[in-house]
């Protein structure tokens, strides 16, 4: 195979298009009943953050461009599969501004479509070899454990913020870590840089999820079902921070009320903000972002510059 440079600045669109085309080809091999939900979500890809981050971690290292595309498709498939399952568990009505798969084809078929997407990712990782299959398997185990912990904590107003951070480290941080490790391994980066990119992925993933939780308190977001998590007893970082501080009794009473409805969400937002929960969550996200940036000091300039560029582009949109 002929080695080539990874996507240079300005070529990201071509790389992304090839990644999505690879996902389309893989999804086309599924049975008709499962192909639809996978293909529909793949056709509405969002930021393509994970595949872009993988290529950024490769930096300027000479790699096989076809393998890079397959690796990008692999991480996007794992993310896509996790979204299909998350939406079933969370009963979310919207994903990226469109109806979720389970609202269109039912939770059973949407769950099976998620399993099919995980299977496609597993097949890709096995074919790519070189330890990739083991890394992907470990990550899927972490994701499953994190999802289980998420379900077990429902309506637990005594759930600590520290426990939640450990949960999202598994549920969100693990996938970002895998993404960075795949890019570092493909570029054959030295052990010191591999460890630094691994840490970056974990810390960035935690910050990403905490900031997303903060958005759940912002009304008018058309890309997601705002407040759905609260309705299901899945409280994010701002709410958990508020439940651990002054005014927790009133907030817990509201969240656990048998009469709690979507009409009570403005009151939840008000209590969380007044107690400083939102400010604490934003501060916490900033701490983890700082750790992520600091980890990049150990990474060679070619990758560090590209990863920081992605961070600068994504952070304002979180």
TrEMBL record:
Keywords: Magnesium, Metal-binding, Transferase. One of its GO terms (biological process) is isoprenoid biosynthetic process. Its cofactor is Mg(2+). InterPro entries: Isoprenoid_synthase_dom_sf, Polyprenyl_synt, Polyprenyl_synt_CS. GO terms for molecular function: metal ion binding; prenyltransferase activity. Belongs to the FPP/GGPP synthase family. This is Heptaprenyl diphosphate synthase/octaprenyl-diphosphate synthase.
């Amino acid at each position: 195979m002929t080695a080539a440079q990874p996507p240079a600045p300005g070529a990201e669109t071509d790389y992304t298009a090839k990644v999505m085309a690879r996902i389309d080809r893989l999804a086309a091999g599924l049975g008709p009943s499962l192909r639809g939900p996978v293909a529909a979500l793949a056709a509405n890809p969002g930021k393509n953050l994970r595949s872009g981050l993988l290529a950024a971690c490769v930096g300027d290292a000479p790699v096989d461009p076809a393998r890079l595309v397959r690796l990008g498709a692999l991480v996007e498939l794992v993310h896509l599969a996790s979204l299909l399952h998350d939406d079933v568990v969370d009963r979310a009505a919207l994903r990226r501004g469109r109806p979720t798969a389970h609202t269109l084809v039912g939770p059973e078929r949407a769950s099976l479509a998620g399993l099919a997407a995980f299977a496609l990712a597993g097949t890709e990782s096995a074919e790519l070899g070189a330890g990739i299959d083991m890394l992907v398997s470990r990550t899927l185990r972490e994701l499953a454990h994190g999802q289980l912990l998420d379900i077990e904590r429902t309506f637990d107003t005594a759930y600590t913020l520290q426990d939640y951070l450990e949960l999202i480290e598994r549920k969100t941080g693990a996938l970002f870590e895998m993404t960075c490790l795949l890019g570092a391994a493909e570029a054959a980066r030295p052990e010191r840089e591999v460890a630094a990119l691994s840490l970056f992925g974990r810390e960035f993933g935690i910050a990403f999820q905490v900031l997303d939780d903060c958005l759940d308190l912002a009304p008018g977001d058309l890309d997601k079902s705002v407040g759905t998590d609260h309705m299901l007893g899945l409280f994010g970082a701002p709410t958990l921070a508020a439940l651990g501080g002054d005014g927790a009794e009133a907030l817990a009473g509201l969240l656990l009320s048998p009469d709690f409805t979507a009409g009570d969400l403005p009151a939840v937002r008000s209590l969380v903000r007044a107690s400083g929960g939102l400010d604490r969550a934003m501060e916490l996200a900033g701490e983890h972002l700082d750790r992520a940036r600091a980890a990049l000091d150990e990474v060679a300039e070619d990758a560090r510059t590209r990863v920081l560029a992605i961070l600068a582009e994504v952070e304002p949109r979180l």
